[in-house]
Inverse folding.
């Protein structure tokens, strides 16, 4: 099974109101990551060391796929409330972008971290990419048909 088929099957799952937990968990993970101080402290857990090894240029590039995943999760979750795809896309993009702004503001209070307009731009770009991917995957689900044997003679 290729990635498009797997993504299409996941997209066909009917979201419930409980599915909003997925984007909220993602947002919680991003909040935790943005709460890490900019420089390691001696009493930091060893796990934090993994994040300090990632160069800032790579960290910046990771904003796009991270916020694309968040926007895609919101698109999927909003399927429980909003049946019009454009409304889902606008709501998901608005919430994801607003969270990207909030996250940068939050980082301005973390020691050794700072808020960046570049990061906000990358967060919004990631949200747009996530909306586009969600629409693309949604269009693929329409072309995937279940393979059922309809031959009644054999």
């Amino acid at each position: 099974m290729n990635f498009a088929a797997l993504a299409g099957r996941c997209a066909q799952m009917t979201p419930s109101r409980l599915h909003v937990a997925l984007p909220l968990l993602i947002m919680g993970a991003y909040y935790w990551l943005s709460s890490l101080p900019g420089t390691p402290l001696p009493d930091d857990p060893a796990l934090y060391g993994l994040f300090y090894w990632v160069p800032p240029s790579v960290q910046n590039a990771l904003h796009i796929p991270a916020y694309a995943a968040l926007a895609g999760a919101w698109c999927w979750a909003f399927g429980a409330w909003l049946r019009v795809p454009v409304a889902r896309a606008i709501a998901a993009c608005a919430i994801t972008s607003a969270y990207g702004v909030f996250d940068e503001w939050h980082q301005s209070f973390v020691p050794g971290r700072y808020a960046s307009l570049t990061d906000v731009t990358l967060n919004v770009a990631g949200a747009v990419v996530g909306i586009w991917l969600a629409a693309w995957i949604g269009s693929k689900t329409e072309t995937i048909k279940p393979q059922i044997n309809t031959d009644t003679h054999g």
User: Anything to note?
Assistant: The mean pLDDT is 82. Residues 117-143 form the longest helix (27 residues). The CA atoms of residues 15 and 103 lie 26 Å apart. The two ends are 27 Å apart (CA to CA).
